[in-house]
Please model this.
Amino acid sequence: MGEITIQASDGQGHFQAYVAAPATKPAGAVIMIQEIFGVNATMRALSDWVASMGFWAVSPDLFWRQQPGVQLDPDAGQAQWERAFSLMNGIDQALAVADLKATMAAARALPGCNGKVGTMGYCLGGRLAFMMALESDAQCHISYYGVGLEGLVSEAGRLTAPTLLHMAGHDKFVPPEAQAKIEAGLADHRLARVEIYPGVDHAFARAGGHSYDARAATIANGRSAELLVKMLG
Model:
């Protein structure tokens, strides 16, 4: 389908979202939440994969308030990483959540959407997916190696939908003490599920990346697929 334009709820403009359509409709929709590298080739490929499983996939540009259309390559050198971290540090996460909610509304309005929506995010997007679990009415949420979640789990009582967290056992951005806090904070929550993949690093599910681990990614993606099928129909 290409791209759609979404109006920001705060009236400050509009932003683009990459959309991949399923072959069969009606179908549920998955809001694909970017890493710190923007809606790049990786996010488009992941969106196409979700669409191939029979769901709408909508990946909004969350850096648009700083620079529209960012597409960085994490394997193309230090300058790309420096720009990515600058954009991550510059994002207003509350406004990003508002933009994700606007994206949810747009996804539900797509012709052929069955009205059910989930979120699935990576890195920064993994954090935002958990924030959406706390603040939105989506049917499910999936977080891959979300950063800073140890500061959010105290609010887990606000979860209202199944929430799946994939964590890398050797994540250089989520140290062991942070992982322990996340596990402990969600251990008794009926809607939260934490899966830790031993021996792998941050971004283990980014196909072709330097930290990609095919075994862990396949297991994690299978668990994600099962949840999406169960909750989005």
User: Anything to note?
Assistant: The two ends are 21 Å apart (CA to CA). The CA atoms of residues 2 and 66 lie 22 Å apart. Strands lie at 2-7, 14-20, 27-33, 56-60, 113-122, 140-144, 163-168, 192-197.
